[in-house]
Every structure is written in C-alpha cells, then in structure tokens.
Write a structure and sequence with these properties.
Number of helices: 4
Radius of gyration: 14 Å
Largest sheet: 6 strands, mixed
Number of domains: 1
Order of helices and strands: HEEEHEHEHE
Strand order of the largest sheet: 1-2-3-4-6-5
CATH superfamily: Gcn5-related N-acetyltransferase (GNAT)
CATH architecture: 3-Layer(aba) Sandwich
CATH class: Alpha Beta
Helix content: 25-40%
CATH topology: Aminopeptidase
Shape: globular
Structural class: alpha+beta
Distance between the termini: 27 Å
Amino acid sequence: MASADNWAPQLASGSLWVAEVDGQPVAFLAATPTCERLHIDELDVARPHQGQGIGSRLLAAAAQWARREGYRALSLTTFRDIPWNGPFYARFGFREWTDPPASVRQALLYEAARGLKDRWAMRMDL
C-alpha cells in the first residue's frame, strides 16, 4: 500500500474514497480521471476487513461517481495470477482489456519494471 501522500492528486480531483470502521480507515479506492474513463489506481482493504463487502461498496461508489461525472468506463490493472481478483472485478462487469491505450500499456510496463509480474488490464463500460 502506498503512502497517503501519494493520493493527494486523487483527493484533489474527488476520486479518492475511504471506508472507515469505528472511525478508523480500513479501505480505500484511489482513481485517476482520464479523457473518457476513470482509471482505478488502487483498491485496498485491510486484511481483517476483507470479505465484508467493503471493496464492493467502494467500487460501486466509484462507478456511480464516474457515471455522474460523464465517464464512459472504468479501467484498472491487477494481478492475473491471484485467483479472486479477476472474478471479483468480473462480477461488476470488468473484462480483460486486450487492446488498452498507450497509457495503460505504459502502466503495465512500469509495474513490471517494479517487480509486479503477471499483471493485466481490465475495463468496464458504464
């Protein structure tokens, strides 16, 4: 998980959502608006709070915000080899994005250079 300071641009643009339990942050979704889509940079739920629907609610809130703001899609990159990632996002309508734009291809290359292997892009039309 990245430092909170890394998410200042998302906070400024209104595309950072935080979930709290008993006044303590337990999950967040940070996204970057692009021309026609909202790109999810990170969705993270603290391990003790996983499996409780918090990530789903954050994703639904981001999708609702993106629709209201006029975006046509959500996109993200994630691990292909973690068995629950693909099915989790597929439940919302995400599908493998076989021909993403250059910015997403560059993100995948950057992630690979940082040691994040077996990543893929996914997209959900709104």
